[in-house]
Design a protein that fits this description.
Low-confidence stretches: none
CATH class of the largest domain: Alpha Beta
Helix content: 40-55%
CATH superfamily of the largest domain: SGNH hydrolase
CATH topology of the largest domain: Rossmann fold
Radius of gyration: 26 Å
Structural class: alpha/beta
CATH architecture of the largest domain: 3-Layer(aba) Sandwich
Strand order of the largest sheet: 2-1-3-4-5
Shape: elongated
Order of helices and strands: HHHEHHHEHEHHEHEHH
Number of helices: 12
Distance between the termini: 76 Å
Number of domains: 2
Number of strands: 5
């Protein structure tokens, strides 16, 4: 009885998951999984009831679990559904280049004839969490991995900035409050040094603490817009202070490349459907809070001449949890693949490839000799 009950519950859980997937994207494989889960769950329940009824009628002892043939079939089907579940959600990362093309011509001659310090400030997106060694965007913009991305050979900062040094100041699981403290801790550089700063900030402010604790500034998941509005305003003021502080630390000039925040729901705001590994509760006001942060980033970039916007949000659209949904306005038919790591809040290898390309294109626009 226990084995049958466990199988029925497991099969019904698979059926629910499949039904949610069918509701989001009408894929034949999901329909098959739904029908299989419901059909076999019913058969297991009926098979157990039928065998028990026969046992009572003949006054024989009830059969053991391994004598119930539906249980054996149900166990096999559960294994197949588990394979489907793992393969279907999320979708495959895919293969090959990701994101926009990066022109080769700007990398044919040097960009600077002075010392340049390249600094990462931000969260785990700037540390490369979720990618292999040397495959985060910050590493790839310095030096391409020719063995993995031969089409990007030579499109790297070390080719055009002979005197390049690097400071890795980004840290995993840090929010914008932490990032301001990091900026304030930077030294003041001499006039013969130019600063290049890559910043990813705000994402942790939004996703932490995953709805497990009450929202607060710096970890506001689940907050209503009225509560979050002053936090958004202070985030914008914090960004302004950071941009000013970075300018002060580089009297010889600097350029800050400030990334927008990506949206793993592809604009649908249904973060509760982001399973199977990373279930999150629904966030009713998630969209206006998310937009408030990205709009703050846009306004700050517009106010400061040395700040250049990097559209990470745009390049990742169509490659989140709705990457296979043909009705999604950001659906990418030529590459309907998933560019997020299993923890949802970081990119995977192809996501980082796409992000490094938009960073490099922004740098070409701002820094390459015309």
């Amino acid at each position: 009885m226990i084995a049958s009950a466990i199988l029925v519950v497991l099969l019904l859980a698979f059926a629910l998951s499949a039904a949610l997937r069918v509701n989001r994207s009408m894929q034949p494989l999901d329909f098959a999984a739904l029908a299989m889960a419901l059909g076999v769950a019913a058969w297991v329940a009926y098979g157990y009831w039928r065998v028990r009824a026969r046992a009572r009628a003949s006054q024989k002892s009830a059969p053991r679990w391994y004598e119930l043939r539906p249980n054996v079939v149900g166990g096999c089907v559960s294994f197949l559904l588990l394979v489907w579940w793992g393969a279907r959600v999320p979708a495959s990362m895919g293969q090959g280049p990701a994101g926009p093309e990066v022109p080769a011509a700007p990398f044919e001659k040097p960009w600077f004839d002075k010392r340049v310090v390249l600094i990462s400030v931000g969260d785990s997106v700037s540390t490369g969490f979720g990618a292999g060694e040397g495959l985060g965007y910050f590493e790839l913009i310095q030096r391409n991995r020719d063995d993995i991305y031969p089409e990007m050979r030579g499109r790297e900062l070390r080719r055009v900035i002979p005197e390049l040094s690097v400071m890795r100041m980004a840290q995993n699981s840090t929010n914008s409050l932490d990032h301001e403290r990091v900026v304030q801790s930077l030294p003041y550089f001499k006039r013969d040094t130019f600063g290049l700063v890559c910043m990813t900030t705000g994402g942790i402010d939004l996703i932490h603490s995953y709805g497990k604790r009450a929202p607060r500034e710096g970890a506001m998941y689940g907050a209503d817009y009225a509560t979050a509005k002053p936090w958004i305003e202070r985030f914008e003021a914090r960004l302004d202070r950071m941009m000013g502080a970075l300018s002060e630390r580089f009297p010889g000039g600097c350029a800050v490349f400030l990334a927008t925040i990506y949206d793993p729901t592809d604009g649908e705001s249904d973060i509760e459907n982001a399973g199977p590994v990373f279930w999150l509760p629904a966030w009713q006001d998630g969209r206006p809070v998310f937009d408030g942060f990205n709009n703050a980033i846009l306004r700050v970039a517009e106010r400061h001449d040395h700040v250049h916007l990097v559209d990470v949000h745009g390049v990742m659209l169509g490659h989140g949890i709705h990457c296979r949904d043909r009705d999604n306005p950001h659906y990418c038919p030529e590459d309907p693949t998933y560019w997020y790591y299993v923890n949802l809040e970081d990119p995977n290898q192809r996501g980082y490839d796409a992000i490094r390309r938009v960073f490099l294109n922004a740098m070409i626009q701002a820094l390459a000799p015309k």
